[in-house]
Amino acid sequence: MDYDSLFSADTASFMRSPVREIFKRVDLSKIYSFAGGYPSPDAFDLEGVKQSALQVIDRYGSKALQYNATQGIPELRQALSERYGVPLERVQVTTSSQQGIDVCTRVMVDPGDVVLTSNPSYLGALQSFRSYRAHIVGVPHSNDDGEFRARYEQAIDQCKRQGRKVKFLYMIPDFQNPSGETLPLSQRRLLVELAREHGFVIVEDSPYRELRYRGHDVPTIYSLDPDCVLHLGSFSKILAPGLRLGWILGNPQLLDQIYVCKQSLDLCAPVLDQYIATQFVTSGRLDANIEKIKGLYSRRCQGMQELLARYMPQGVTWTRPDGGLFLFLTMPQGFDAVKFYDRALDNGVAYVAGSFFHPDGSGLNTMRLNFSFMDLERIDKGLQLLARLIGEELDALGLRCDAGQ
Amino acid sequence: MDYDSLFSADTASFMRSPVREIFKRVDLSKIYSFAGGYPSPDAFDLEGVKQSALQVIDRYGSKALQYNATQGIPELRQALSERYGVPLERVQVTTSSQQGIDVCTRVMVDPGDVVLTSNPSYLGALQSFRSYRAHIVGVPHSNDDGEFRARYEQAIDQCKRQGRKVKFLYMIPDFQNPSGETLPLSQRRLLVELAREHGFVIVEDSPYRELRYRGHDVPTIYSLDPDCVLHLGSFSKILAPGLRLGWILGNPQLLDQIYVCKQSLDLCAPVLDQYIATQFVTSGRLDANIEKIKGLYSRRCQGMQELLARYMPQGVTWTRPDGGLFLFLTMPQGFDAVKFYDRALDNGVAYVAGSFFHPDGSGLNTMRLNFSFMDLERIDKGLQLLARLIGEELDALGLRCDAGQ
Fold it and tell me: Which residues are the signal sequence here (chains A, B) (predicted)?
């Protein structure tokens, strides 16, 4: 049978996740993996999930296993509404925040429509945008507010000249994936101004926000203008990714389209999982778990910085995140992290090449490193190995800055 | 903000589920509901789910809460592979079989492409097809094999003349939703012949197959030709819909596109739920539960037939299913089940109007009645009420056949 003639036009733009492909190739437990965005196995409150499962089945009985509302079970929506100080009609539960990204794209993007992103940006989001044949425009960051605004304005103007409609801007303002960096308040305000001025929505993806290890919270973009922002939240990094639960906060008119779309996507999010998550939120277990996780990851984040400084060859630089799960490594120009990847994996260490996060395919000399999954001992050994391999590669390429080392 | 200008072209074809809208309007426990496809609250093995949750968390620890493979956790795929006698590489786990329908449509259908269905067919599938702007062609059933084949051939020829490509045929061969009827083997064979001849796929949706109350199993369409059929299965009716778990069996080349698509939809299906479901399959609990459910629903199905015969006015007919959750009621021509609906609901009884299941909007004089959700006592009272209201409506319309009653 000729299947190829049956596939939709969208499929030609489907992109395999290099992260998920890595996990098909190797057993994570047998290598040093800086690759995934996996929480630490120690980050899960196993006993709490167990107790919560028992409690919700005893308390809700068959309701815990039955179909429920497409918007999410009322109990969880109420809990999220209270936790984040948002009216109930502005809360939609999603089956993972990846679904949040997907459904936002689905209800807004026609082929050729523009999605603005930072450059680099989250791979899974780029995958989703591509799968709907969005025209993705990645805008490089600038620390200078004037330059920052100018870059976005330039990108928007260019799209307009091409007759393309900007549908939304996708942003992870807190401890960005992959860079680990946080957008200052002034730049969040600028983005809202631009959205208002040019009539597009901001999709604020915020899975790491509650994992801050130092410094102070910056207001969410959503809080600056709840009617031009769809705010995506997730239980994956603060409770457990295995529950596949996230949420969208936003204007009811936008959420209504998302709600109707979600009916045909999966009817409703996993119900038992929603009750378990509700139990976590309302019992205080979630806050306790977040505190535990912050302690754990904070040490790994700090330790990683120190180990990078100790092991990495000169000329290699990295970001210094205040939270989240990732930092971003930059090698000298000429280094190719995609090509280098097989050598690293053969030697037992994995990362994600930075170019996969760049919509324009740039950033060949960069890589994303995760610091949440492994303990510090393994981070230490893994980084020693990775640094040695990078050094050898730089030597082979004649790119080493510190010839004396 | 002008949101309307931001919505994708697909959204204009989104269709609200009348079933889900009913559930927004009324409290199910306060009315006689023949509307949903809800399992009976008594159909859930609450103790089994509780024990399984404990066991899998104890046994798998953090793995039960972590991310896992997009194809599904290996343990569940293995269990499904063995249960249904299908090679492992032909098993893809989905986050509900509604997702199975959605993802099959997404990887195959461009706007204007044809999806063939029976007429009537499952509402949630029609919603999904419409949301991708498929050209849905509903083919009325015939018990005569020659006529059955002729109708499908005629539909296919007409699509070809219109320059439209038939991408797949969607079929619920066992205890169909909404009719409750089962496709005989000869007609399953005919469909496979047509698919081969005209180069399209058959999406065989099979959520009720294991709930047979009398007669003998008919081979699945998948078993007749595993390379031209995508077989969708579900735990919703045999274990619990709240787990949101289904599966697709099919040719690995087709599954590969679905796998890549699913990466950007939600990364993976709920993991704890997958472990719980695995535990159910491998421990024998699932088979025990199916036996229990069959006993329960079989009595309701049979009882419903008897009560319909007792209460319904002459001129009202219904299907006699051998399994599943539904039967289909036909009133005399001229009866409008959509218009009648408000009156029924105001009087405390709910159903789904049959026209919603007809892609061409026909079937105004039909309704779908569910017999799994309520116990026989409530079915009795609800049917008495419904029959009285239908009788009054027939009187008002001058459509009653049995004037003497």
Answer: none
Phi, psi of A350 (to 5 degrees): -120, 145
- The number of beta carbons lying within 10 Å of the beta carbon of residue B199 is 15
Instruction: Choose the mutation target among A17, A127, A263, A292 for the interface with B, i.e. most B CBs under 10 Å.
Output: A263
* CB contact at 8 A, B14 and A261: yes
From the CA of B385, how many Å to the nearest CA of chain A?
A: 26
In contact, B214 and B322? CB cutoff 8 Å: yes
Q: Which H helix or E strand runs over B24? A: helix B18-25
* Interface check A240 vs B, CB under 8 A: yes
How far apart (Å, rounded) are the C-alpha atoms in residues B191 and B203? 11
**B139 in reach of chain A (CB within 8 A):** no
**B199 chain-A contacts, CB cut-off 8 A:** 1-2, 5-6
pLDDT digits (tens, 9 = 90+) for B46-84: 999 999 999 999 999 999 999 999 999 999 999 999 999
* Candidate from B41, B67, B108 with C-beta closest to A8: B108
Q: Count contacts between A and B (CB, < 8 Å).
A: 264
Q: Is A263's Cβ below 8 Å from some Cβ in B?
A: yes
**Which site among A264, A268, A275, A370 would you substitute to test the B interface, given the most B Cβ atoms closer than 10 Å to its Cβ?**
A264
Give me the numbers of helices (H) and strands (E) for chain B, helices first please: 13, 13
B397 φ, ψ to 5°? -90, -5
Residue A317, strand partner residues: A330
**Residue A138 contacts residue A193 (beta carbons within 8 Å):** no
* pLDDT value at residue B402: 59
Nearest CB neighbour to B272, from listed A15, A64, A273: A273
* pLDDT tens profile B330-385: 999 999 999 999 999 999 999 999 999 999 999 999 999 999 999 999 999 999 99
Average pLDDT in chain A: 96
Put simply, the answer to whether B242 touches A167 (Cβ < 8 Å) is no
Let me know if domain A46-284 sits in CATH 3.90.180.10: no
Structural contact between residues A64 and A272, judged by C-beta atoms closer than 8 angstroms? yes
Instruction: Supply the DSSP string of B160-219, one letter for each residue.
Output: HHTTPPEEEEEE--SS-TTT-----HHHHHHHHHHHHHHT-EEEEE-SSTT-B-SS-PPP
Would you call A174 helix, strand, or coil by DSSP? coil
Q: CATH assignment of A3-44+288-397, given 3.40.190.10, 2.20.25.110, 1.10.357.10, 3.90.1150.10? A: 3.90.1150.10
Q: Domain residue spans in chain A?
A: 3-44+288-397, 46-284
Q: Report CB contact under 8 Å: B109, A8.
A: yes
Asked if the peptide bond before residue B41 counts as cis, ω within 30 degrees of 0, the response is: no
The DSSP letter of residue B366 is E
The CA distance from A405 to A387, in Å, is 12
CA A271 – CA A47 distance, rounded (Å) = 20
What's the topology of domain B3-44+288-394?
Aspartate Aminotransferase, domain 1 (3.90.1150)
What the block records as the tokens of A321 is: 């995140």
* Residue pair A312/A390 in contact by the 8 Å Cβ criterion: yes
Which two structure tokens, joined as six digits, stand for B115? 């999806």
Q: Which residues contact B303 (CB under 8 A, 6 or more apart)?
A: B371, B376, B379, B380
**A12 close to B (CB below 8 A):** no
Contact criterion met (CB below 8 Å) for A371 and A340: no
The class (CATH top level) of B46-283 is alpha beta
